[in-house]
Fold each of these.
Amino acid sequence: MSNFRIFAPLAIVMYIIVPFLFSGNDYLMGMIATALIIAGIALAWALLGNLGGMVSFGHAAFFGVGAYTSAVLTMDYNVPVFLAMIIAGFGASLASVFMMPALRLHGPYFALAILAYAHIFMILATEMTSITGGAAGLLSIPNLPVFMGFDFGTKLGGYIVILNIVSLALVVYHLIRRSTYGLALKAMHDSELATRIVGVPATQLKAIMLVVSAFITGCVGAFNAHFINFLDPEYAFSGEWTVIPIVAAIFGGYRTLSGPVLGALFIYLADQLVFKSLLPQGHQLILGALLGGMILLSPSGLLPIITNMFKRFSKKGDAQHVES
Amino acid sequence: MNKHIIKSLSAVALGLSLNLVSVPAFAENFLLGEHTPLSGKLARVGTGSHRGILSAVKVLNEKYNGQHSFEVKTIDDESSPAKAVSAVEKLVSQGVIAFTGGYSSGIIGPASEAAHKANRVYITFGGVAGPLSKRGHEGFFRINNTAGYGKAIIGLISDMGLKKVSILYSNKEATVKTAEFVEKGLTEGGVTIIKHEFDGHTKDFKSIINKVKLQDKSEAILMVGYETDYIGILRAAKLLKPKVKAMIGIWSLATGKMATEFPTLMENVYGTSMLPFPVAFTTSEQKVFHTAYTAEFDNEPSYLEQFGYVQTLLLGEAIIAAHSKGEVNLKTISEELRKTDQMTLAGRVRFDENGDNPEFVQRVGQHRTGKIEIVWPLSAKTSDKAFPGTPWN
């Protein structure tokens, strides 16, 4: 199934139908925006895992660094919010450079090393009280601004901003995948040794993927800081910013382009809007059971199931067309 | 016919003049919102606060029966700031007029920010971080603060006549500020203080306790943290048995749940508490609370329930006062709350221009064989303190 046939309806739903139906409901728009925050991290994580072949347990570090960079720039240096969010992406990329020694490691060793880095960044944020506010964190972080007459500080405005960040991340992911770099990365996935022998700079490519993934996560973290107007080290570097996106990516299908986005939207919205209403305490149990079932029944995730359904549907349609 | 009408009108007029006919002119149902951690790491304290809030709503409904009614809508924020914000937004969309609840400064900060944006009053006891009340939010109120806890601990330690105290404190905002406050107060009184900061994720406290035992050689250990920190510190101390005369903690320690779930670990340990456990309610206000609480729940309330109760009762009374003057909104409820100056289960409550209660001073309780006795101040004590005394000695 072509990417266009998946993205076109998804884009119509997200850019037209959702704002049209729910723009008056701040609560729902806030929920969807939060789901998109998770989607953005899930996408960045999947990019690193799928193209770079690295399983990261430390994306909370990029998220936190991005969030703090943007918050501090806007609060202490009066940098415009949107510009600060872009700089925050570079800040997170810079943080990823410090993690590069870990690229020499593979599999669980890399995962654990990057987890340790995330913890180091959290301690730094706690200890650098004069910049980050220490354990107390930062309150009243500036809202997203009014830009060209439109107030991005509203829930609808925030939704549009995070939707654009996720869409741009999808485009970047798609372009990398289609490029010669993407081909080399795919080959590395099968046999890193073989690709090194034919001259592919494997470590360099993995480093680029780490930087790109960190940039996306940093921008998402920066968005969240201006969306929720609050940060403290425990929240900004919380393991939840790593675990839930991983769950979302695997649930949606982390080897696909839009699987992580669909996964994040599904698990967050289903959990908060449906399961939580059914079971106010302990609703995570339903989500856990669903995730377990999904991994057993469709290890590739949700998107392949949807794709197969579409294929069957279109085959039936074609058959009926031929019969008639 | 005319005679009949005149007779009827006369009867109604007479009834009104004798106050026999009561017609509530603007009977209204006031919808309150509550976000609180009923799951996650703060579930224990959140549940306590929640039960206090429900008791207050029950008391308000009984008091204004036939005139007005109160209802509270609650959403579990799962101990997460983002979910607390969503909860506030959802509750606003459901028509709540004010918020009561919340626990932990890190959650109350963004949640009260969301309430502020929605022009709703937000009252709490769960966050004592200084910056919360410095944001210029007209509708933010809290009945307690760091200083009130600190003053109680300084008073207790001064009464004990200790000369050297080790303070073990978590690196969170509220705990750091409280540790600094207590250090300043005790140092001015001539007490030597040795501080040990620990990370909020610390599980094993043996190395810190060993330092206190072998290096500090203090007379008491003051713990400024949260439930899991206290349990970790007390377990390590019980194992290593430093020669201290007292183990003292602050909030979330002298609670009924700690007394019943960790009776041997808590023995002789001090913590802040407004009332003893099981509670000996003596005043009429205390009895009203206790009756309302035990009608719904089968355990004895601790300070968490009492504080949740007090803040909600104050909010409810402010809403009624605002309503009687014609309008219920952020401005009018805030104005009425600022007029508050009364003795409550949480001591005297009066709000300053920032919504803080400068009159707040905690009391100190001591765990004693599954009970909690109030041992400080003298005016409120229910028993003499078992001093020196630790869980292992």
Amino acid sequence: MVLMRNFCVLIVFLIVCFAQVVCAHADNFKPVVIYQGNIENNSFNVSIHEGVKRFSGRTGLNCTEVVSGLEPEQYYRSVKKYADGGYSPVFLLYGNQFDNLVDFVRDYPGTRFIVLDTVYDEPNMYSFVLAEHEGSFLAGALAAMSSKSKTIGFVSVADIPFIRRFWCGYVQGAKYIDPQITVLEGFIGSYTGSWFDGNATSALANGMMDMGADVIYQAAGGAGAAVLEAVADRSKLGIGVDVNQNGLYPGSVLTSMVKRTDKTVFAALMLAKRGIWRDNYKRLGLEQDAVGLVFDENNKSLVSRKMRARIERIRKDIVLGIISVHDFTEDLKCFDRADR
Amino acid sequence: MTVLIDKDTKFHSVALHLVLVLLLGLLVPITAGMIITLEHEQLKLEDELSEFHSETLKTLVESTEDAMLSFSPEGVRNIVGTLLKDKRIVSIEVFSEIFDLYLLRVSKETPDSQFDSFSMRETVVKDGEVLGYVLVEVDNGWIIPRVDEARNHIILLFSSMFFGALLLVVPAIYFKILKPLRRLAQQADILSKGELGVACVWQGQDELSMLGKTLDGMRSKLNENFNVMKEMAVTDELTGLPNRHGFAEDIKKNMDLSRRYKRPLSIAIFDLDYFKAINDTYGHGVGDDVLKEFARLVCSRIRNTDLFARIGGEEFVMVMPETPIEAATTLVNEIREVVSSQPFAHGEKVTTSIGLTSYTGVEELDELLEAADKGLYQAKRNGRDQVVVQS
């Protein structure tokens, strides 16, 4: 009898354990989004925050939002803290923000990590990639159409593959319109606070304008607004990034290459909430309206109907695969369409 | 003549009428058929397009359901990429309600190439949850070149039908109706002019040929009757000699010849003596027999060129061309003697009194006959059975 009862208890215990293992991921929805620096001054962070807000509003579920310091060490500590605290999924917004990320992730096999814009082949890492190269292609095309000096520029911070995607798409777009066009490039380099170092980026932009550039695309995060300001000061054209920056310097911002990171984060949260972890990699591009150019009242005078129609046609051709935009991160090389 | 013209006009209007009826009878159904076929073709194409539209939508709904649930744009992209190769599709939208994101949104439309498109949208629902929607726009303009092509084919087909029918019907109408009608009209025209001698041969067994045959039969019958009547008009029925009518024409001709060539011409009038008494005594039958025998007797004696006619009850006239009065006197005397020398049918002899005169080229026929009549009167007065020459 006692043996029988013990056996039953054992069976029930085993069943419960097994069920817990099976349901572990689904039941454990405790998301955390960890920002670096602050939210307000970084358009990228603002966009993510939008997505989180929309998710909470729609589902009524909470999502923890944490702001860490700018140092990679600070960021690493925040991530470790929440991973240890049983949070899952953990949103690593900047992907490659600290060293040994992959090793770190392997230490937490029961925790799911969601990274943006970077792809890792780890079973508990889920990558959401925006096709910035496609949006940048359109930005390059529009820049080439607008440039009178036939020299355009690209300003960014860290010369890393992720940023090179922007640059590469931009160059391809410009050369698609005008194979002879000159595309200047400049990176201020990676150092603490570099993503907010407007002085360095504006100096770089001024240098390019001295060399004849009349349209400059910035993919410089918090240091990007300074580029647009420098360009506006010299009555040249700038191209915004991440969010709609057309209104920052109306008449001087040709367009903005928006990344709907908010949509990406919303979709990622929704997938996590629904426990759908089928693919480790999701890509969002022009066809989802996840990247693209903004045409509004602020740049109406800068973009003619004809230019707009041409951009629409290019967008359609990219979506339909008639134009294929090379992604720099695939092979760390930039194919120039004109050279192909 | 008026009747003839009327007939002519009528004939033309028949041809015109036939042509009009033919054109109308061919054109109206052919045009109607063409329009109906065209409409049908257009409807068929429209149906085809709309069926394609809903099929596409159905395919999309089925194939994107899972992609909407798991948010996999890649899967959708492959399907849409295949679908978009079809010219009819203008745009496709696959929207995931759950993730508040387009899985895919693509349009072939640009500001410079607009389509006359029609869109259908279907919400995708699974287990009571709205997953999102699928929207497909198709190009209504797709059917336009196809309708045009179909119209060209149909017009070609129907025009060849029309001209083919004309090619068959027009010669048939011409040869079977218009030509016989014209022939009939000509035939009637000839008939109406009194040309009864012109025959018209009809072959074939159709109504118009039969009519033509009937008409020709009528003509030949009329011709026969007319000839008989003409004969009757110039011939004395009893004796077979020309009567006053028949004789007048010939004598005039002889007088003309005589005058023209200054040739002698003599005329004699015979009258049977006491003929009334024969009639009264033996009856009219015998009288007629006497007249017949007399005529035969005289005819057997005269020359071929001489004319002999009965111009009254028992009065005969004889014209002798190329005969001077002396020779004429001898001739008629011979005849008188032959007549009076033998008995007639009733067994008695009959004598004849003769007045003779010659034509000088100036007298009218009446005057000439009057002169001969005077001679005859004189012969009667002188005791009958004799010849009196009256100059």
